Fold these 3 entries.
Entry 1:
Amino acid sequence: MRSLPIFVLLLFVSLNTMAQLKYIAHRGASYYAPENSLAAIQLAWELGADGAECDIQLTKDNQVVLWHDGNTERLTGQKLEVAKTDYSELNKLEIRLSPTNSTFFEGEHIPLLKDVLKATPKGQLLVIEIKCGNEIFPELQKVIKAYWKTGSIAFIGFNFETISLAKVNFPEVPCYYLSSSKEDVLKRIPDIKKNKLDGVDLNSKIIDQQLVDELQKANAEIWCWTVDVVDEAIRMTKLGVKTITTNRPTFLKEQMITIK
């Protein structure tokens, strides 16, 4: 039996890797709906994303909400500090698609994580970035235990202590350390392994072959953010990245499928 030419084998491997690549919608389908809104999360799945990413914080009255910024001004026009405000007050605010758009997707409010978990379909992935500190864990444990019934979840976070504690609190949930510094990641590889983190979620710009090689030695899975152009997605694929967070999951997925 004749063996296949090496370039054919490499092409097969490349195409197979692209097919396995997962596309995560950044803050939900935030290109079309207000970021971190329930509409954005649900729309991400409807548009065919492999998962939806969201940000969580703790309110003054210990409610776990989806929100990125420390205050609400950018997307509501009113400045309330999330950590210093009860959810009943935050829930009165309407989220806009952007700081200048208040008409598209009217009626969206700051959602509770429990409502998003209840709306997560079977087989779908919700990637949860922890934006605050360790104070969130007592309430987060209650919410996850009570409302995580379907779908899959993963935790990500920039604070190494917090994401490591997430792994302690939720050993069955994949946890990934966020970073935009190659030097930081290389320095932390021993602790990533020691703390049993599942991998890293990195700014795509810092990822190169050296970093990939070192992470693979530690059996650390590599995710990346935020990639919206095909050339960078191809580069990530060739380097062995498993998951791409993007503002345009449908566009990127369709473009990558057409590549031969």
Entry 2:
Amino acid sequence: MKKTIAAFDFDGTIIKNDSLWSFLKFSIKTPNLILGLTVLSPILILYKLNLFSNWKAKQMLFSYFYKGMPLREFDDYCSQFMFCITKNVNSDALSKILSHRKNGDEVLIISASIENWIKPWADSHDLNTILATKIEIDNSGYITGRFLTPNCYGKEKVLRFLSLYPNRNDYILYGYGDSKGDKELLGLSDYSFYRKFN
């Protein structure tokens, strides 16, 4: 009998908002945030106009605010941020996660967001598999500002998923997402749910 896997996007699916912007507001003082967004505004405008790639814009944004920060400090912010995530959880998504787990299905999170701030919430719900964007840390334990993995978005979601579950005929896949970054994963799924859970 084939096992069942349920893959959930995070931003806009499990939670109602964009966790990157929420985390920025949570972890960066307002004057510094305003200054940084002003400096980066040309890049953000080009991104909005589809003239600059998602991962490049995201990495530049992340690097500006977090490059040189000790990983320990960053992870402390991530642990505290779980409260903000919990407030914004989509109750329908959580119900569906619990339903899959009750049925004995394997549930995972697959997201373009940074793994570090997803993990505390995932751990609190015993969701042990997270396929997300990983950040690079130098030998001294400081954030380099670069991503260790490609941004887990679009086709990269499928590549990351299949690297973990390569034998596609061995399982039934349920996919849940809300944006164009989930299109390829939903296309891979036997049962796909776009901005819905039933």
Entry 3:
Amino acid sequence: MTLSVEEMAVFCKKKGFVYPNSEIYGGLAGFWDYGPLGTEMKKNIKDQWWRFHVQNREDVVGIDGTIITHPKVWKASGHVDSFTDVYVKCKKCKKPNKLDKSEVGKVKCECGGDYEVVGDVNLMFRTNVGPVEGNTAYLRPETAQLMFADFKQVVDTSRLKLPFGIAQIGRAFRNEISPRDFLFRCREFEQMEIEYFIHPKDTNNCPYIKEILNYKMLVLSAEMQEKKQKTEGKEMTMKQALDKKIIKTQWHAYWLAMEHKWFVSLGANASNFRIRQHVATEKSHYALDTWDLEYKFPFGWKELQGMANRTDFDLQQHIKF
């Protein structure tokens, strides 16, 4: 059965999972409200995620950071200067859209028209703190940064030693140029995230590696994509992926397998998942290696989770500032 994103949205509305926000006033693009069933389902998923990743482990603790924080946090992280999309408009139908820099000049509008570049747009929502205009702050565009900004306080109070993780569940906000695809590109959404800290010398010294060496997943490597191989991926064990240097470190392989296991534990069909490695043109400048955990929906493969080796970039940035 083939199902479009639009048909999925209609189904979710009809059954009480997700509604368009403020629909009685015409709605607001990129914002969605969870109905009675959606609210219960979301709570169950978050509770299960927290049990699996935090309460059932001794090496992960949680925080609950604020949505608005000191603007220097976002300056240090690079979001103020670089968290942008290329804003384009179709010359033919005038429809706005966003493109990655690598897509400019290569991608056409769905109507067949060419895009013209309007400019770069920062995706953070601005606000003012206090009654005075100009005291600028931002709604957080991701949950990650407070885990770095609070790193020392977490270490001092929890007495954790490397390797360990900090987890957080919370809302994030991105002023998307062209929100679309139902819940896949919203302007307000929730993230469940872990930042796991490992000494650089120990990235291939994971004490839990034996638990996942024989775990099988569908793997789509950067090389497969760059060679334009007509494949959705190749099934292999984590040991095979490590031996072939497709996955570069034991810790990365471990967390890829654990996240796959968690989604399957919810009742999802394991055969509909794959891990896809970012190619060079889409990888963030600070990342040594990045993988997406994707699910094969009736309307195609969509990312559910990203797992990046961010090195010590974020901590070093906050040290500098």
